[in-house]
Each structure stands twice: as structure tokens, then as C-alpha cells.
Design brief:
8-stranded parallel β-barrel; elongated; binds magnesium ion; 8-stranded mixed sheet; binds phosphoenolpyruvate; alpha/beta; 46% helix
């Protein structure tokens, strides 16, 4: 058997090898094949990463051998040697997973620098300052990234020199200063590590590759993977690439560019660069870069070549590209290209433009927009009226669109904690870094003092669809004092600010936000998605307002109306409580009589909002603990209302206490004990339908859904009460029309006996919230507390309540769908658990042939797109 190949030179790979070489590696190989000037190198595969972890954190000898072999081939290709005293090879070592995970894993630059090569570089470039600057940067980066030595120890040394000499910026440091730093940094390293800084570049390389492998499992990468549905089994590749230098003086520079504008989608090269700088200077946002258009004026020949390559890459990949480039003493190199991250607005414009330009088919274009991204289109903007009155205090870059307001949080941890406690916060930072990810997720918006449009904050916020203003240099932020100062005014942690990520404006106070209008590219794009998809998309809505909202987002019906949710309002909950604590049928009927008109009015409202589209009404399913009164005053009021003493009512409430309410007296179990509840609800459903049929002319065909069924006889019992009541109400009103009775499949026993259940049920709706809870035996209320340990220990990668567990819960759904169809071939099948709005779960529902998914109103557009993508990827009839 031929042994496995773990390391590929760039010229040995191509774009189709993304899974093995990672996105970056595959694209570097492809660019090499296209003849684009790429500094050469090699890629250690994702399989080597997995093998490293499988082998308990060791690089296997045969992989090591391959690395060293490719290294000597690279030396041949470049004509340079590692650690050489004349023309040494220096490399960068970067991670590159199958999909890009910006900033999540580690990068090491200038590797190969040591006491010998630094002198050679100084001589060769006639630029000792550059040589020592590169060396000190390498020691710093290697110590931090590879060895985990605290960055501050190095920053302090730099600060000491700056203070001694009274200078402010790094670029004011002289060669001698940098030489001193090199030796001080080496001392820090020795003190921290107990050994000298490694001088052999091969040792440096092996350590660096291991560090990248390890970084696949660092906490921020794990969080990012969970957020973006990236399996831990993919691993990361490592790219070892010859260094080219953008900091060799004024004819050198470095930058990032997009082939179209990543914020708006406009067809125009967009980017930023800095002369005499290294890549990290641009991305870290420490110096503010120049717009790319300036390069055209500065060096027209080079810009022309640059523009040519950008166009070649976009045409080749048929998508907007995000590229890194470096100019080394007047020569242009491309260091990487990838499909660019973009705002939802830009994604829609680019996708529709690429179809108009004949570059993509509609099916291909549908795959170019992330369903989750559409969320951001539905996010708020500031109310124009309130904005007129708002106090503008500063202006930064419009880094990620949307509007947000909140109180000021100064660190990511603080943002996370305060958001968990229900506060709305805006995270205000000098700049963000990858470890801030959780705080960035928790915040309403992100505001940074430093950084350009391609800074960490900007890129990550755009990806998440969170509003972000970056590079707002007027602010003075003090983490210690927990203040933001601007124009002589000071704001603290209790002050509100509002930020507009579409204009870059920052306002004092809380400015009211409103939802955006959807039109133009969105409508065109979504109409393509609607034509392609086979799954219908309904919504979970309990109020006419939510239902109407969902219809404007494209919902084709209501898949779940949770009737108990109609009773949370202050004036209604009393009647529900009265019903729950009733001890006699008379008491209960009295309470139900109060509820009936409200319930009927609710159903009329929803039927009207849906204008004849189907509505599934789920009968009462209140976990009792959510409804019982607990405050003494509430109990007293209710007792008075029911002519009971406080103690009598209190005793009833105590009796109703359940140790595990989620598995308690809820769902159809309530209707089994108290059929009068199901009768009242049926009356409300049918009377409302009659009313809307008569008054509005819609052909309402009510769909009544009985929840939490586990045994056919339960369903038979409740169904009989429903059917009798329907007949009674229709007779009273002298009408007859169709209606359907179905059930939820949310108990494993129901899934397994679905062939029996389908004898009674005309439709199934999979209640995957409960089905997940009951299948895993995880309480849906409590699991989050311990699931984080499971993510850390890589037992589970995803929250099974957010993303359908296809192996277990999914199997139950599949079994139930198949069994249901054997009894009733035309049974209507849908899903209404939270998973109905999750793209990968939607794909699963499509593949097993469900008829519809139902999700919350704001997730409807994403669900429509996910359903279309599922059809493109897995066509079905
Ligand atoms: C479910 O269990 O998935 C469901 C939709 O019902 P609920 O969340 O109301 O229990
Ligand atoms: Mg349920």
C-alpha cells in the first residue's frame, strides 16, 4: 500500500483539495498553477493535524520526515537556505482550515530568524533596522503564540525604551534600540522557558507547526466552530510559506483587498494598504491604512498588475475575493485569496450581480449567501425621527451595518456577564482581539477606537451580523477608570450610547431603533430561492402582530400557534390560573368561560393576519410551573376572585407542585384529565373560523394539533372530544367545512409508534424541542449549564437544542415519518421545534421529505434560503 502523503508543495495541489489542504492551502496551490506571483511554500495537511491529535500531541516520525523533505525542496525552489549566513530562508507559518476562521488560530511570521540570519538579512538588504525589527517581532510572536509567554513582558521592554528616549511610536526605534530589544527579549524567553531561544530554524519550524495544530482546539476556535457549524473533525492545515517583506522601506508595503466592496457589494476593488509595514500592522489596526485607490496614483504600473490579478482571481473563482498582498521592493506578491466575507447587503448584491454578469446560474448564486446572514437585514436601524434629536458625539468607520444601543461595557467578560443578566450593552474597546469573541456575541454592538474596515472587530462583526463602528479615534477609553471620554465629556458603565454601523456615527444616550424595509436585491434573490425550494416555510406565531410580521418575511402559514402563550398578559393569566387551580368541573368551566372569548378573538386575529393561509393551532400545553402564582399577593388576589381563603388556594398550589414539570401534567395529559379545556379550545377555533369565513371570505380550514401524545389511545380520547365539539358548533351555526386534526411528535414513544398514531392524526409536526429533551434526557431549561463542559471536552460540539442531532433525534424523526407514511401515505409532515429555523436541520428535514418547516418570524427568510440551498445540494422531487 502506498503510504499516505501528509505534506504538499504549493505546486502539487489545487483548488479541489480544500478538505485536505484547507482553504488557504488549496488556494495558494491554485494561484501557483494560475501563474500568479505567490511566495512558494508547502502545506501540511488537515489529516496530519488530526493524526497529531490522535497520536496524543506528537508529530509522527514519517510526517516529520516529509516536512523536512519539503523544506529542502523549498530551499531549492527559492535558492535560499534556512539559517544561512548569506541569504537565509525565512517563512511564515499559518493555519488554514477547510473554511476560513479569521483570527481564530495562530500565525507566526519571520520564522528562521536567528543570531546568524539576522546579520545576513541586515547585510543583504543593507537595512539593519529592518533585520533587527523582523527578529524582535519573531521572538515576540514565537514566545507568545508558540510558548504562551505573556505578551506584556515584551511590550513592557518596548515601553521602557520609548520612555527612556521620550518617543511615542515603534517606527521611531533605531537599529540600536531594536538590537537591545532582541537581546532583552531573548533574556525574557530564557527566564520564562528555562532554555535559550531556539536558534535552529528547524526546531523553530516544528514547534510552530505544533502550535498551529494545537490552536485548532483553543477555546476561541471551539466557540467559533460552534457558532459556524464547523465540525471539530475537520482539523486545520498548516501553510509554510516563504516570507516576503512589506517593511523593507518605502518601496515596500502590504495590504488587503476585496475584488468588490464587502460592505455594499459595489463592483469596485476595495482595500487598504500601508507602505513600509508588515501584514499584522494592517489587520491589527494599530496604524490606520490608506485606501487602495491611492496606490494607483503612487505606482500606476504596479496597480495595473495588481488589478489584473484581482480580476483573474475573481473570474476564476466566480466570487468576490478577499486577498492579501505584499510589495517587496517594488515587486508584487499575492499571499492568499479566499471568497470574501461580506455583509448581507453586499452578499445579495454580489450574488444577483454575478448572475446578471453571466458568471453564475441562479442555483449557484443561491449558494453564495449564508442563510444566517440574512438575519442582519432584518435588524434594526435608528428611527429617523429620534435620530434628528440625537446627540452625535463621534464618528468612526461604518464597519458592520445595523444600529444598536446599550450601556457601555469595557471588556468582553463584562459584556458577557452583563448581557447574561439581561442588560443591553455596547462593547467599547481600544481594539478587539479573537479572545473577545464571546463578549462580541453578547453585545448589541461593538465600538472600537482603533482599526480599519478589515480590522478584527470589523471582520468578525460583519460575519456575525452585529453592528460595529471601528476606528473611532476621537474616543479616549480607559479600561481602568471604566470611562470613555470625548469632547471633554465623560461616559461610564451606566451610560447609554448608540452606534450606527452603517454610517459610523456614535450618539450619546439610547436612540430608538426600527426594523428596516426589505426590497431590491433581497426580493429578487429570495424569489429565486422560493422558486427552487421544495420545503414550505411556516412560522411559529402566537399573536396577530407576529404572524403579520412573519407573512411580510415570506411565511406561508402558521406551523405552531402556542395557545398558552396567549395568556401571559397580566389581564389573562388570572383566568388561566383560575382554570389550573380549579378543583371542580364547575369552577373550571367558569374559568374557561372567561377564557373562551379571548381565545376566539385571538384566533380571529391570527386567521385575518394570515389572509387564508393555513394555521395550525396547538392545544394548551402549559408546563404548570410557568403559570402557577408564586407571589403572595397574586395568590391572595386569585383566592378572592375564586371565593377561597388564602390557605385553601395555597394548599391547592402546593398539591400541584411537580418535581419535573416538563415531564408533568402538561400537553394532552391536561385534556385527558380535564376534557372541558379541549372542548373550549375547539369551540374557539371553530367559532373564529366561522366568523372569518363569513366576514372576510377566507376559506379557513382549521388545523388542530394535540401536543405531547405518546400513546394512540390518548389521541383517540382527546380527538373524540374535539370532533364532538366541532360537530356541535357546526350544527349550532348550521355550517360545514373541512378541518384537520393532527398531533405533535415530541415523545420518543410517539415516534416509534407513529404508524399507529397516523391512524388518528392527519398530520405530524415534529416538536423537536421536547423530542430532543426526551431523547437525550436533558432538561431543556437546565442543559445549557452543563453542556459547556461537553463542548470543552469535545463530547458534543453543538447545542442539540439549537442544531438537530441527526444521529439520534433525527433518526426518530425519520422512523416516525416513514411509519406515518405507511399508514397514511399523504400524511402532512412538518417540524416546529427551534430546529425549524436552523439551516443544517432544515437540510435534514428536506432530505427526509418533510413538507414544511416552521420557525420564528425573524428566521423565516433564512429558512427559505436554507430550504433552497438544500434543494440545490440534494435535489428531490
Ligand atoms: C417542541 O417541543 O418542539 C415544541 C415546538 O413545543 P414547545 O416548545 O412549546 O414545547
Ligand atoms: Mg413541545
Amino acid at each position: 500500500m502506498e503510504s499516505k502523503k501528509y505534506v504538499y508543495l504549493f505546486k502539487e495541489g489545487n483548488a479541489s483539495m480544500r478538505n485536505l489542504l484547507g482553504g488557504k492551502g488549496a488556494n495558494l496551490a491554485e494561484m501557483t498553477n494560475l501563474g500568479i506571483p505567490v511566495p512558494q511554500g508547502f502545506t501540511v495537511t488537515t489529516e496530519a493535524c488530526n493524526r497529531y491529535h490522535d497520536d496524543g500531541g506528537k508529530i509522527a516520525p514519517e510526517i516529520m520526515e516529509e516536512i523536512l523533505e519539503k523544506l529542502s525542496q523549498l530551499e531549492e525552489i527559492t535558492g535560499k537556505k534556512f539559517g544561512n549566513n548569506e541569504d537565509p530562508l525565512l517563512v511564515s507559518v499559518r493555519s488554514g482550515a477547510r473554511v476560513s476562521m479569521p483570527g481564530m488560530m495562530d500565525t507566526i511570521l519571520n520564522l528562521g530568524m536567528n543570531d546568524v540570519s539576522v546579520q545576513a538579512v541586515a547585510k543583504l538588504t543593507n537595512n539593519p533596522r529592518f533585520a533587527y525589527d523582523s527578529y524582535r517581532r519573531f521572538i515576540q510572536m514565537f514566545s507568545d503564540v508558540v510558548m504562551g509567554i505573556d505578551k506584556r513582558l515584551f511590550e513592557d521592554k518596548i515601553d521602557d525604551i520609548k520612555q527612556e528616549k521620550g518617543i511615542k511610536y515603534d517606527n521611531e526605534l533605531t537599529t540600536e534600540d531594536l538590537q537591545r530589544l532582541v537581546s532583552e527579549f531573548k533574556e525574557v524567553y530564557k527566564k520564562e522557558q528555562g532554555v535559550d531561544f531556539p536558534q535552529d530554524p528547524k526546531d523553530q519550524l516544528v514547534e510552530a507547526i505544533e502550535a498551529v495544530f494545537k490552536s485548532w482546539d483553543n477555546p476561541r476556535a471551539i466557540v467559533y466552530r460552534r457558532l459556524n457549524d464547523i465540525p471539530g473533525t475537520w482539523g486545520t492545515a498548516v501553510n509554510v510559506q516563504q516570507m516576503v517583506f512589506g517593511n523593507k522601506g518605502d518601496t515596500s508595503g502590504t495590504g488587503v483587498a476585496f475584488s468588490r466592496n464587502p460592505a455594499t457589494g459595489e463592483k469596485k476593488i476595495y482595500g487598504e494598504y500601508l507602505m513600509n509595514a508588515q501584514g499584522e500592522d494592517v489587520v491589527a489596526g494599530i496604524r490606520t491604512p490608506q485606501p487602495i485607490a491611492k496606490l494607483a496614483g503612487q505606482n500606476p504600473t504596479l496597480y495595473k498588475q495588481f488589478e489584473g490579478i484581482v480580476n483573474t482571481l475573481e473570474n476564476h473563482y466566480k466570487d468576490m475575493q478577499d486577498m492579501e498582498f505584499t510589495i517587496e521592493e517594488g515587486k508584487l506578491y499575492f499571499l492568499q485569496t479566499r471568497n470574501g466575507k461580506r455583509t448581507a447587503q453586499a452578499a445579495l448584491k454580489v450574488a444577483t450581480d454575478l448572475v446578471d454578469e453571466g458568471m453564475l446560474t441562479k442555483e449557484e448564486a443561491i449558494l453564495k449567501v449564508e442563510p444566517k446572514q440574512l438575519d442582519s437585514l432584518l435588524h434594526p436601524t435608528f428611527s429617523a425621527e429620534d435620530l434628528k434629536k440625537a446627540e452625535l458625539i463621534a464618528k468612526g468607520l461604518p464597519a458592520s451595518p445595523g444600529a444598536a444601543c446599550g450601556k457601555i461595557a469595557f471588556t468582553a467578560d463584562e459584556a458577557k456577564e452583563r448581557a447574561n443578566n439581561g442588560e443591553k450593552v455596547v462593547l467599547v474597546r481600544l481594539e478587539t482581539s479573537p479572545e473577545d469573541i464571546e463578549g462580541m456575541i453578547a453585545a448589541q454592538g461593538i465600538l472600537t477606537v482603533r482599526g480599519g474596515m478589515t480590522s478584527h472587530a470589523a471582520v468578525v462583526a460583519r460575519g456575525m451580523g452585529t453592528c460595529c463602528v471601528a476606528g473611532c479615534g476621537e474616543l479616549r477609553v480607559s479600561d481602568e477608570k471604566r470611562t470613555v471620554e470625548v469632547n471633554g465629556k465623560v461616559y461610564g458603565a451606566e451610560d447609554w450610547i448608540s452606534i450606527d454601523g452603517s454610517t459610523g456615527n456614535v450618539y450619546a444616550g439610547a436612540v430608538k431603533t426600527v426594523l428596516p424595509e426589505i426590497s431590491g436585491h433581497f426580493a429578487t434573490f429570495m424569489s429565486w430561492a422560493d422558486k427552487i425550494r421544495k420545503l414550505q416555510v411556516r412560522t411559529n406565531a402566537d399573536t396577530p402582530r407576529d404572524a403579520k410580521q412573519a407573512v411580510t418575511f415570506g411565511a406561508e402559514g402558521v406551523g405552531l400557534c402556542r395557545t398558552e402563550h396567549m395568556f401571559f398578559a397580566e389581564d389573562r393569566i388570572k383566568a388561566v390560573r383560575e382554570m389550573i387551580v380549579s378543583k371542580t368541573v364547575e369552577q373550571r368551566e367558569k374559568a374557561l368561560a372567561k377564557i373562551l372569548p379571548m381565545q376566539k378573538q385571538d384566533f380571529i386575529g391570527i386567521y385575518e393576519a394570515l389572509e387564508g393561509r393555513p394555521v395550525t393551532i396547538r392545544f394548551l400545553d402549559p408546563p404548570l410551573h410557568e403559570f402557577l402564582p408564586t407571589a403572595e399577593e397574586d395568590i391572595r388576589n386569585l383566592a378572592a376572585e375564586m371565593n377561597l381563603t388564602f390557605d385553601e388556594l395555597k394548599a391547592t398550589i402546593d398539591e400541584l407542585h411537580e418535581f419535573n414539570p416538563m415531564m408533568g401534567h402538561r400537553g394532552c395529559r391536561l385534556a385527558v384529565s380535564y376534557p372541558e379545556i379541549a372542548k373550549m379550545q375547539t369551540r374557539a377555533v371553530i367559532e373564529a373560523a366561522i366568523d372569518v369565513r363569513n366576514n372576510k371570505g377566507y376559506n379557513i380550514i382549521p388545523e388542530i394539533m394535540i401536543p405531547l401524545v405518546g400513546e394512540i389511545k390518548e389521541l383517540q380520547y382527546v380527538k373524540k372530544k374535539v370532533v364532538d365539539t366541532v360537530n356541535e358548533v357546526m350544527k349550532e351555526n348550521n355550517v360545514k367545512f373541512d378541518y384537520h386534526i393532527g398531533t405533535m411528535i415530541e415523545i420518543p414513544r410517539a415516534a416509534i409508534t407513529a404508524d399507529e398514531i397516523a391512524k388518528e392524526a392527519e398530520f405530524f409536526s415534529f416538536g423537536t424541542n421536547d423530542l430532543t429533551q426526551m431523547t437525550f434526557g436533558f432538561s431543556r431549561d437546565d442543559a445549557a449549564k452543563f453542556l459547556k463542559d461537553y463542548y470543552e471536552k469535545k463530547i458534543y460540539e453543538q447545542d442539540p437544542f439549537a442544531k438537530l442531532d441527526q444521529k439520534g433525534v433525527g433518526q426518530l424523526i425519520k422512523i416516525a415519518a416513514e411509519k406515518g407514511r405507511t399508514t397514511r401515505p399523504d400524511i402532512h409532515l412538518g417540524i416546529c421545534g427551534e430546529h425549524g429555523g436552523d439551516p443544517s436541520s432544515i437540510e435534514f428535514c428536506h432530505r427526509i421529505g418533510l413538507n414544511y418547516v416552521s420557525c420564528s418570524p425573524f428566521r423565516v427568510p433564512a429558512a427559505r434560503l436554507a430550504a433552497a440551498q438544500a434543494q440545490v445540494n440534494f435535489p428531490r422531487e
